[in-house]
Specification:
Helices cover 0% and strands 44% of the residues. By secondary structure, it is an all-beta fold.
């Protein structure tokens, strides 16, 4: 397994729970460590990167949920449109 590190974003909310693993998450030019039992919440259209170095003795177990904001209607307000996060580009 190769190292996994990819900048990406999603239309909806991403919730990532790491049961077991080490690495780092970069979001908004800040880096945060990944440890066992880490919970992360990414906003819609928020560019982020998860880096998990692979090694024979390392394990990476996670649950990754993607929630589309349009499914929740008004409860998410303006989160369903990228202009809510990037008004300078809208």
């Amino acid at each position: 397994m190769k190292n996994w590190h990819l900048h990406h974003a999603h239309r909806g909310i991403e919730i990532l729970y790491i049961y077991k693993g080490q690495g780092e998450i970069m979001v908004e030019n800040l880096t945060y460590p990944i440890r066992d039992h880490t919970l992360v919440w990414f906003q819609p259209y928020q560019l982020h990167r998860v880096t998990v170095p692979s090694a024979p003795s390392r394990t990476y177990i996670r649950t990754n949920l993607h929630l589309r904001s349009r499914l929740f209607g008004a409860s998410f307000g303006g989160l369903s449109h990228p202009a809510a996060f990037f008004p300078q580009h809208a």
